[in-house]
């Protein structure tokens, strides 16, 4: 492993220094001058054009299954065609059809005790829906069980459902992982310490509740553990919710969120203190508790089924053997569409999230088409649908890959990269240390005088919140970089300020628009670096691997056991 990793780093150094000679028997000629010349097409003008078009009002917030999607598919496919790329679907088209179900739920909900009935204000006290396709989905006076963090993790000896039967009941759980303490300090050997694991994600909470037989799951939102304010959820639940139906499963009758104020009032109705109950949930001896209150909900569903599109283009490799191996650049093209209930501005333009990421993928595609000597391996440019609805497009591709995943070397994901405030001295790697792709990125970044830093907010679980995760789950090494914070001439305090400004003022908000003060110089530099990473993997005779101990390594090993590479 060490020898292989060393050779990998040495090879990327060759790429940086411009050496075209093979080293130590590696059959590799890195055409560095070719790549450096090709990347010159990644400019402020090109990025401004791509991002500005996708984030314009004309594209209506790019919600799947709408006119905004039609315009997005047409724009990306025609642009890829103009670049000289091939349609990426082997059937000769630019799209992969993703069958989806869209549901608009009109919710009414109450908490009831013998002494009190609380009819909640939908949107403020509680939000939620059901993905069951019946026109009416009703729950009447269902038992409520507080199950701590709602985690069943046998590898950590942790099961919040131990000793309790929640079948047909409503489960109330806390967001994020249990912060397990040992001798007064956070135990980093359990649930990644302060770094969120998949057990902390809201999607896991719903999935585990369904596995346990619950009728519904309510997640208690808190801004710091969740990583975003409750307003983000309020915006997300104002429109149609999308899913990919699984015929083998009946969805929860209710899944949703309450702010901490609702949780405090609910527990008070039961003679309990929410904060003390929350504290008890991190104890080894925690036991789920049934509350005295009951939950009633009535949901009227409006259902439609439609096909949305993953958009895919292909740059074919020129090596007779290696061209059947693939590197994928991915970004989600979708955002949140239009909220017709609003007065004035109604369009969620999604400029940073994720017209910016899609624009960088388009820029990388243009750079590959400007290579004089080409790439040995084939490069795929995949703009996926419905990321905002739970990584649905990426999940669909992972289950139904157009090209074998065992022949896919790497995924380079770009999502809300966030560098709209100028050049930085650093790059953030979300999930830093997970794979050898980090080493390639480090060498490519060093060429521009940049250094890498890990995600400063691992507790927010960003590695599990974007499309690359669906590929990682399948075993494919995946890189997820974010714009840096050490801003040239302004420092890290300024970078943190701008990142926080986006998170708390613009993320999933109407204000996520292209702004007059955007500085594209950092985007241009980062786009070139990510292009060079994909180029290097496409040329190298070796494959990047997951790091030892990474949760996805065994999946990759199983995938490749019968494949010779």
What are the segments in which pLDDT stays under 50 over at least 5 consecutive residues? Answer: 1-31
Please name the CATH topology of the largest domain.
Answer: Aminopeptidase
Number of strands: 22
CATH uppermost class of the largest domain = Alpha Beta
Number of helices: 16
Name the CATH superfamily classification of the largest domain.
Zn peptidases
> How far apart are the first and last residues' alpha carbons, in Å?
16 Å
In words, what does this structure look like?
With 565 residues, the protein is of the alpha/beta class. It has two domains: 61-98 and 307-559, Zn peptidases (Aminopeptidase, 3-Layer(aba) Sandwich), CATH 3.40.630.10; 101-303, Glucose Oxidase, domain 1 (3-Layer(bba) Sandwich). The protein is 31% helix and 23% strand. The chain has helices at residues 2-17, 32-38, 44-54, 67-83, 202-211, 223-226, 230-236, 260-269, 274-280, 351-369, 392-399, 437-446, 468-474, 491-506, 521-539, 553-560, and strands at residues 86-87, 95-112, 117-119, 127-129, 136-146, 152-153, 158-159, 170-174, 181-182, 185-186, 216-221, 241-243, 254-259, 289-315, 326-332, 337-338, 347-348, 378-384, 408-413, 426-429, 451-454, 478-483. The strands form four sheets. The chain has a 16-stranded mixed beta sheet that branches. A two-stranded antiparallel ribbon has the order 6-7. A two-stranded antiparallel ribbon has the order 9-10. Strand 16 (337-338) and strand 17 (347-348) form a beta hairpin. The two termini are 16 Å apart.
């Amino acid at each position: 492993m060490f020898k292989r990793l060393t050779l990998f780093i040495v090879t990327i150094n060759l790429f940086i220094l411009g050496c075209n000679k093979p080293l130590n028997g590696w059959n590799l000629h890195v055409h560095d001058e070719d790549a450096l010349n090709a990347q010159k097409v990644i400019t402020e003008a090109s990025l401004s054009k791509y991002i500005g078009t996708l984030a314009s009002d004309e594209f209506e917030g790019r919600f799947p299954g709408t006119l905004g999607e039609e315009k997005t598919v047409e724009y990306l496919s025609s642009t890829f065609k103009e670049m000289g790329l091939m349609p990426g679907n082997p059937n000769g088209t630019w799209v992969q059809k993703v069958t989806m179900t869209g549901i608009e739920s009109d919710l009414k909900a109450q908490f009831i005790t013998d002494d009190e009935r609380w009819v909640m204000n939908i949107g403020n006290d509680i939000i939620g829906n059901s993905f069951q396709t019946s026109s009416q989905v009703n729950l009447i006076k269902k038992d409520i069980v507080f199950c701590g963090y709602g985690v069943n993790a046998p590898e950590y000896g942790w099961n919040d459902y131990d000793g309790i039967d929640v079948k047909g009941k409503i489960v109330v759980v806390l967001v994020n992982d249990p912060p397990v303490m040992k001798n007064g300090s956070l135990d980093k050997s359990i649930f990644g310490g302060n770094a969120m694991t998949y057990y902390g994600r809201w999607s896991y909470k719903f999935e585990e509740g369904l596995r346990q037989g619950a009728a519904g799951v309510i997640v208690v939102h808190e801004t710091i553990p969740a990583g975003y304010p409750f307003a983000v959820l309020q915006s997300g639940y104002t429109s149609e919710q999308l899913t990919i139906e699984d015929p083998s499963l009946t969805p929860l009758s209710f899944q949703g969120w309450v702010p901490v104020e609702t949780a405090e009032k609910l527990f008070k109705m039961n003679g309990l203190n929410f904060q003390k109950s929350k504290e008890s949930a991190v104890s080894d001896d925690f036991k789920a508790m049934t509350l005295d209150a009951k939950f009633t909900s009535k949901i009227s569903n409006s259902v439609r089924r439609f096909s949305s599109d993953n958009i895919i283009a292909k740059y074919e490799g020129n090596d007779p053997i290696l061209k059947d191996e693939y590197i994928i650049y991915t970004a989600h093209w979708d955002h949140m569409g239009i909220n017709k209930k609003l007065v004035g501005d109604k369009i969620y333009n999604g400029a940073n999230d994720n017209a910016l990421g899609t624009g960088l993928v388009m820029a990388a595609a243009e750079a590959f088409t400007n290579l004089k000597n080409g790439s040995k391996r084939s490069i795929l440019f995949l703009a996926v649908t419905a990321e905002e609805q739970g990584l649905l497009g990426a999940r669909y591709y992972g289950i139904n890959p157009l090209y074998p995943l065992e022949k896919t070397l790497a995924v380079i994901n770009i999502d809300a990269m966030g560098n709209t405030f100028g050049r930085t001295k650093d790059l953030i790697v979300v999930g830093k240390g997970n794979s050898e792709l980090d080493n390639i990125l480090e060498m490519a970044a060093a060429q521009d005088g940049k250094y890498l830093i890990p995600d400063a907010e691992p507790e927010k679980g960003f590695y599990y919140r974007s499309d690359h995760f669906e590929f990682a789950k399948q075993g494919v090494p995946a890189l997820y970089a974010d714009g840096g914070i050490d801003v040239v001439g302004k420092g890290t305090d300024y970078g943190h300020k701008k990142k926080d400004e986006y998170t708390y003022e613009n993320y999933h908000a109407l204000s996520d628009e292209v702004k007059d003060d955007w500085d594209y110089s950092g985007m241009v530099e980062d786009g070139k670096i990510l292009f060079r990473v994909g180029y290097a993997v496409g040329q190298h005779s070796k494959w990047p691997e997951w790091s030892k101990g990474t949760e996805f390594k065994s999946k990759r090993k199983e995938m490749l056991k019968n494949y010779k590479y």
